[in-house]
Inverse folding.
């Protein structure tokens, strides 16, 4: 399908705008939580934007080894935010990238037969895991709404007003707009909040002035990766959940584009995501997954050609090579980000609940799986010292609430829903979603 270059460019930019807030808010949250300097945060945002573009191009470019060949856009997975902050706080930033590298290699290795592993991740498991992750993110959002943990004006009236103003703008746009404007409501809310904060004298543009106009990606910018078992297990679990979510997006796009997906197509898609995660680890970016908001944009625009996504990917790479653009996002006050985070992290919880809506709640077994996994996952997150006196070889897998909750959900699902079944297939098997 031939496209007018101007129309192609505008459609590509539209896809960039639809995912931009989701793309940049992850490095801003993680970098802020880890106490990075303005220069480091600028690099993190810039490299993340660039790697979103590369990850997208890897997925759209279908070849013998990788790429699903559908008009799919990749960005950082929100599922990884809480785990990365926890890993960085407990093990250091280099451990985050060691865990990302290993999880990416794991995805590449299991890509061929992941379709068979999906049955171990039915909605009762994935829904519980995503709900746990969302709940662990809420304190991060609340701290930012107050101005950021340790800030001199923590909890000030100005910070609270900015946070709720940002949230209010997002909610009003969701209520009274449709289509593309609604799709970028979070981005608009952040921009409006930052403008108001600037008028109040709470925005410092020095990072923009100090940033260069061009830079080249630097492998292992934050140091050589370190490899610790718990962070690696955590990021592998995050990667598996992301693959399950991506599978749904693949089938939705296949339905939209009238393309029947085969096992090899899915394996190529998983492999492309694994490569993207590995590149994220090498260049100190993040794990990547399919962005469902861009699927909605394809439905709204009716333009299904891959050329538009190639353009979007190219724009992202170019934007990521210009640190001044990345630095512009780092001036957003913590309280403004906090207001947007409440909506975004709340949506993570809502996504988990939506996954759980596919579960048969008439089954007491399923209720017990959810109760125990969410209860233990959240409990360990808020009372991390509960297993402090266990032997070290056992304690190593009980330090993370997400790992504890995820393993509980997986094991209980096998015990209650899989053992003894004649077909060996879980009743809550993952369905192939249809596009609405």
């Amino acid at each position: 399908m031939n496209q007018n270059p101007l129309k192609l460019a505008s459609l590509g930019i539209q896809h960039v705008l639809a995912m931009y807030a989701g793309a940049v808010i992850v490095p801003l949250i993680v970098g802020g939580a880890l106490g990075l300097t303005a220069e480091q945060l600028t690099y993190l945002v810039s490299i993340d934007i660039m790697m979103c573009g590369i990850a997208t191009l890897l997925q759209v470019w279908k070849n013998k080894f990788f790429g699903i060949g559908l008009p799919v856009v990749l960005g950082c997975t929100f599922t990884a935010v809480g785990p990365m902050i926890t890993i960085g706080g407990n093990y250091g930033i280099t451990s985050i990238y060691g865990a990302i590298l290993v999880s990416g290699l794991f995805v590449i290795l299991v890509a061929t037969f992941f379709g068979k592993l999906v049955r171990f991740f039915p909605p009762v498991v994935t829904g519980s895991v995503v709900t746990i992750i969302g709940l662990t993110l809420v304190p991060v959002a609340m701290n930012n709404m107050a101005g950021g943990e340790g800030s001199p004006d923590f909890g000030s009236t100005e910070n609270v007003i900015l946070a709720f103003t940002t949230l209010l703008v997002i909610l009003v746009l969701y209520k009274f707009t449709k289509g593309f404007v609604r799709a970028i409501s979070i981005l608009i809310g952040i921009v409006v909040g930052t403008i108001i904060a600037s008028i109040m004298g709470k925005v410092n543009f020095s990072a923009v002035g100090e940033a260069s106009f061009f830079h080249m990606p630097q492998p292992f910018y934050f140091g050589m990766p370190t490899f610790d078992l718990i962070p690696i297990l955590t990021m592998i679990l995050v990667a598996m959940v992301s693959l399950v979510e991506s599978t749904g997006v693949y089938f939705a796009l296949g339905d939209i584009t009238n393309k029947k997906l085969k096992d090899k197509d899915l394996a190529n898609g998983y492999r492309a995501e694994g490569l993207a995660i590995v590149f994220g680890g090498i260049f100190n970016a993040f794990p990547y997954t399919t962005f469902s908001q861009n699927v909605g944009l394809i439905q709204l625009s009716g333009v299904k050609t891959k050329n538009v996504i190639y353009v979007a990917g190219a724009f992202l790479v170019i934007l990521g090579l210009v640190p001044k653009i990345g630095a512009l996002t780092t001036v957003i006050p913590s309280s403004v980000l906090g207001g947007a985070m409440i909506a975004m992290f709340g949506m993570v919880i809502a996504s988990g609940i939506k996954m759980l809506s596919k579960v048969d709640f008439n089954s007491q077994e399923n209720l017990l799986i959810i109760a125990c996994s969410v209860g233990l996952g959240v409990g360990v997150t808020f009372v991390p010292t509960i297993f402090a006196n266990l032997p070290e070889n056992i304690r190593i897998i009980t330090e993370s609430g997400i790992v504890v909750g995820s393993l509980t959900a997986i094991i209980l699902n096998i015990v209650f829903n899989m053992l003894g079944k004649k077909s060996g297939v879980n009743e809550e098997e993952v369905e192939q979603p249809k596009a609405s």
